[in-house]
Amino acid sequence: MLIVPRSSMVALPPRSGGVPRARILVQEHNRRPHGLLDGKIGLIVGIANDRSYAWHIAKSMRENGARCVYSHLPGEKNERRTRRAVEEFGEADPWMVPLDAGAG
Q1: What is the pLDDT of residues 59-75, one digit of tens each?
Q2: In the chain, what are the domains?
């Protein structure tokens, strides 16, 4: 349940045909919540490019205030590819660590 202050309520004009619209609750942070993950740190594993599920999860976490650590497969090429994908959503200097879960 979302509680919105009365001051953020907007009355819309009637639809065509004269049927009145219901009052609609409008508030910018309802569309894009901020601060939900403030102070949290997430380990993101599996970003290969901007089509990866992990990329979209990391982007959403960043938009909600979380800091992220990104892993990549060992090797320069994999690090560059992951860094390029992470920088697309505004992470200027990402903290990246190599991780190979199959090794060992």
Answers
A1: 999 999 999 999 999 99
A2: 6-98 (3.40.50.720)
Side-chain-side CA neighbours of 22 within 13 Å: the count stands at 3
Identify the helix (H) or strand (E) that includes residue 39: none
pTM of the predicted model over 0.85? no
Residue range 5-10: mean pLDDT, rounded: 52
Listed in sequence order, the DSSP H helices in the chain are 28-31, 53-63, 76-87
Identify the pLDDT of residue 35.
Answer: 82
Asked if residues 101 and 73 have their Cβ atoms less than 8 Å apart, the reply is no
Q: Report d(CA 93, CA 18) in Å as an integer.
A: 55
Scan for tokens 């049927």, then name that residue.
19
Q: 3-class SS at 3?
A: coil
